[in-house]
Specification:
Layout (H helix, E strand, L loop, with lengths): L2 H4 L4 H9 L3 E8 L4 E5 L9 E8 L6 E6 L2 E4 L11 E5 L2 H13 L10 E10 L2 E6 L12
Antiparallel strand pairs: 1-6, 1-7, 2-3, 3-4, 5-6, 7-8
């Protein structure tokens, strides 16, 4: 019997299927006025970065993160920016996790306010899409006596 007759893919087809795997991570910006958008520079350089992610995360100025070419970032439109997460995709898992870690390092989680940059999961329910973020262990504010 031939492998093609049984229905199993050949070794070359298996390798091509593995190279086509795309990894996806969602990042949620939690905080008042937190925004993100992708910018392309006007001049074309032949370097490692073609696009930049601009983050407005409660600092005095905008934070600019150079996006590696193997990572693609989709930011929500202004009307959906509060509810929708930033979607990062790549075929290289290690570079994707490195990019996520660097973006999360720009705004650490504030345990008192519950704001920061968090990873979230997208779930499809009967009511529509819902996003489950990382658990936030909030501290209680001490009251004066």
């Amino acid at each position: 019997m031939n492998r093609k007759e049984i229905g199993k893919p050949s070794i070359n087809e298996e390798k091509s299927m593995l190279s086509e795997i795309t990894y996806l991570i969602n990042l949620q910006l939690l905080g008042i006025g937190y925004r993100a958008y992708v910018v392309k520079p006007k001049t074309k350089n032949n370097n490692y970065y073609d696009k930049f992610l601009v983050l407005k995360v409660g600092q005095s100025g905008d934070t600019v993160y150079p996006i590696p070419n193997d990572v693609k970032i989709n930011c929500p439109v202004d009307a959906k920016a509060d509810k929708e997460p930033i979607i990062l995709t790549s075929q290289n898992l290690s570079s994707l996790k490195k990019a996520v870690a660097e973006i999360k390092s720009y705004r650490k989680l504030d345990v008192y306010k519950g704001s920061g940059i968090l990873e979230c999961e997208r779930l499809q329910t009967a009511e529509g899409e819902q996003f489950i973020t990382e658990t936030i262990l909030r501290k209680e504010i001490k009251k004066k006596k």
